[in-house]
Amino acid sequence: MDHCHCCSSAFQQVSRRTVLKRALGLAATALAANMFPLELFFQSRAHAASNAGKTLVVVFQRGGNDGLNTIVPYSDPQYYAMRPRSTNGGIGILPPGSGDGSGLDLTGTGFAMHPSILPLHGLYTSNRLAVLPAAGFAGSTQSHFTDQDTIEHGFPEQRDGWLNRYLAAVPAAGTSTIRAAAIGDDVAKSLRGTVLVPSLTDVSSFSFARLGASKAALDANLRAMYAQDPASSTANPARSAVHALGPELMSRVAAIEGIGAAAPQNGATYPNSTFGREMRDLAHIIRSGLGLEVATVDIGGWDTHDDQGAGGAAANRQAGRLADFSGGIRAFVDDLGPLMNHVVVMTCTEFGRTVRQNASGGTDHGKASAWFLVGGSVKGGVYKGAAGWPSSLTEANLDEGRYIRPTVEFRDIFADVLVKHFGVSTSELGAVLPGHVHAPAGLFI
Q1: pLDDT (tens digit, 9 = 90+) per residue, 167-212?
Q2: In the chain, how many domains are there?
Q3: Pfam families in the record, alphabetically (predicted)?
Q4: pTM score of the predicted model
Q5: Domain that holds residue 171
């Protein structure tokens, strides 16, 4: 059974004294971390803002996805010099129209999609998918953890997440039951900071962890605890925090419990995978009208140092991951239907891979990689950035002779989302991305 991870360790027995003692300990811990003075994840300040009804979903491809085989520069012969065609024993994706395993043409751009992301191709042709073949940042360390931290924090020196800074800086739009959530076992670093955010692993069975206690007994003891005279707790900040926030927390958890399970809508078919189930649950939360603004979902398995494979065969390592990734996103879009006019899905990865394939039929850590944005307000197309895609993938045009240089700075992507999707002010943008000078990427209509 799933549970509210922000409170899961607070209760082991159902005696009133134990519940009170452990809840006070939780509050004291949060106070020491400077978290309780701010709103919890269920922020509900009234605010007539342009972020009303808007949602951002951030999908992180952890491991460093090979962008060069995701969005393929098939018109450049040097691509096939670095990566021989799959028909010649290499990992190069075949040009469009070359038979099984051919790329999916992005007409007029010189690029093609990996055949395994066919579910996204229709979104591109309907102008709802923005493709950024070389997103990233200068100064990549090519370390999974360091570069993930940089992207999720927004800057190497920041210790809180950029999405958490958004939650802290920008008032909630209207009344929100759950303003932000990490879908999965862990709270992404982008959501960590002064605003508490829960992780949700199974919405259909969401509740407080009871560890054998009945729901009725736990609820009764919690309500009895919160019903004590608040005046007696004024000398104890932790006790005061429990009295102030406890009843609200219970009502919010009850609201999430109340949405239950639901079948996907509009004929959407999700992959039978962890990622597919998490995207299905996320669509259900959004449809339920709980006021969700920000959510994160992770999908791993992208560190393809060997046996990366080419073409669309599911047995190929990257092909299988791309099929799961694209199938989950497309089902999510279909499931939400017209609600996608108010939702943006942004995908990211910590870095790309080396341009030249290695001797093990894989690729090693690189720099820039392919990112995507999906949504009704997204301006579809291929975004090569101000510097543009290299005229040819010769060593002279590569960073250190091996890597694709970033042509679109990831913070500009974030800023485009914040300004155009959420409508943040200049001062709010400065609080979320302090010191960054926004060069608009033009990703929205």
Answers
A1: 999 998 777 889 999 999 999 999 999 999 999 988 776 666 555 6
A2: 1
A3: DUF1501
A4: 0.86
A5: 53-217+268-432
